[in-house]
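Hey all, sorry for the wall of text incoming. These are the two entities for the joint prediction.
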Amino acid sequence: MARVKLSESKAKKIKEICAAYGNKAGEAINVLHQVQGEFGYLPAEVQELIALELNVPVATIYGIVTFYSFFTMIPKGEHPISICMGTACYVRGAEKVLDEFKRQLGIGIGETTADGKFSLNCLRCVGACGLAPVAMIGEKVYGRLTPDMVKDILNEYK
Amino acid sequence: MAKYKMHVLVCGGTGCTASHSHEITDNLKAVLRDKGLEEDIQVILTGCFGFCEKGPIVKIMPDNTFYTEVKPEDAKEIVEEHIIKGRKVTRLLYTDPEKKEHVSDSKHMGFYKKQLRIALRNCGFIDPENIEEYIANDGYAAVAKCLTEYTPAQVIDEIKLSGLRGRGGGGFPTGMKWEIASKNHADQKYVVCNADEGDPGAFMDRSILEGDPHSVIEAMTINGYAIGATKGLIYIRAEYPLAIHRLQIAIKQAREYGLLGKNIFGTDFDFDIELRYGAGAFVCGEETALIHSMEGKRGEPTFKPPFPAQSGYLQKPTNVNNVETYANVPIIILKGANWFNKIGTEKSKGTKVFALAGQINNVGLIEVPMGITLREIIYEIGGGIKNGRQFKAVQTGGPSGGCLTEKHLDTPIDYDNLIAAGSMMGSGGMVVMDETSCMVAIAKFYLEFTCEESCGKCSPCRIGNKRMLEILERITKGQGCMEDLENLKNLATVIKDTALCGLGQTSPNPVLSTMNNFWDEYVEHVKDKKCRAGACKSLMQYVIDPNLCVGCTSCARNCPVNAIQGEKKTPHVINAEICIKCGTCIEKCKFNAISIK
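and here's what came out:
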């Protein structure tokens, strides 16, 4: 299988981040946080390089990346959409809102649209239960959602 | 420091921020500047007031006026009318739903009347980004008292006497935990604050950290002194950027004031705090899993003993407490254990913060004395069920807890009573449900969560919960049989007995408690293929009553998948093959002609 090679500048940045944490295995989570913050996601070749720098097997890094829901191996869309599936939102109809987002975008949870514009995810509780059901697009919070509001909201970003 | 005549407090909690409270603050400041009042009136962005339902909240001190649902464009009127002319802006005041009268003072509002704010004492009152405001409200006086008047053993005795129990869910006596950690000797010990609030629908810890971060820092310092630790760590979710930001500011300020670092208050006690970030794993709320995560590993739990107090972070004695537990500590030291242990019930002292949510009129963050009844919380503080519907159940304890029903409404709430009723205190999520919530679907909802969050280390949790979920999926699709119910019960009992950690041991609770309280609903799903709440999609069909339909075409025009056909002014028909059961048509029909069968 053809492998994607990391650009030199990317590799340099990753090495810098690892070095800033003393290349210590115990700092793996902090390193991953920062690398994901820099590049948006953690593809296999990035994990391989981190493993090399921290002197641990790739499996260890892969194990951490897949364990925590905050880390992702798939690039997010330009406008990441997160639907709150906390209990408060769920009992106020978040599932119907999610279904409508799926239908409008033609993608499932954890997927990104073909044009790279939107990605869809669920999260557990934004802490804005007073506005339930809630969705976030980027940093913006949309509250008291109903399925018929979805189309207009998406149009704001088209 | 400048002296102000009036303070305008604007809620800067997550809910109100989402409804533009920053713009309100900016507008207020701009108007005050225009009027040349910025020296006299201070505008502060505070932590959460709790009354999220009516947010954004603006409170004016000293007259305690409580404005609700404020919009950025209301800033001018608030300044011109209230601040300059002294006339309250009545249209922004809270209206009592029963008496239909405006209530200006929050103390007289139903939502606040029965509350007792101890852990949340400073939330909504002080500027969380300014250490001087915390100090002005007796902040850091408790740690001063401990360091200069008490021995470590006396501090532990005081906490033990207070009866404080862990607020993260389990309810282990805090003083006893500290005592065990203090008795284990090592060259280095650690104090850890568990701020990995993962329970969906609970946001009390985040509100405390956002509204009063110094109280947690002070309490951790006291904890460090009591057990002989010089290092503190706060394990916080990366999903809480505002709380992280405020904690970073608070730690920096405390260091500048010499309240963290070497020789605190001129004594030989050193203490400092660092942040560690979680990455979204519910199981990390379990203390051994949390410790592994802080060490940079997968957050998998290990068998206890050894307890963290014996061998925790980096194999050193470690004391882990939750945010809300810590928020209680400084005030217990200041007011005394005998003040605290008079509040609450015999075995559960003090108060508990709950995130009240779901189908209830007043959604928000509340703090109530232990021993209050669910009825008081739901009907007096919560203002009853939304849209005048019927109360069905209230879920406490999140994915580890259970559903309580009508018959539990008058039970005094404390750790032991909730467990006896088949639920648990948990971290404090309280989700109210009405008759439109299907209890089988709710059990499935929580199990989906547990399956997703199970770390996979032990088989009862990894495999058992998955099998339970499959059974529930069958039942909600109308493919279940009576044997499934029997299997569900057996599996639940086995998982409860054999899982490794707290997550697995409590994961069957939502299933067991709904089966105990709503057995009929389970049977209905299996035998009659019916969901009385109308929540299980596979079991329902949308139909138009030809006698009521006038052919207005509203439903057909709004149907997102064009499943409704019919000529104008003649009854319409829904094509069940195409219908996605989204419910839009019911909402749009003005003639109540559409129903679920």
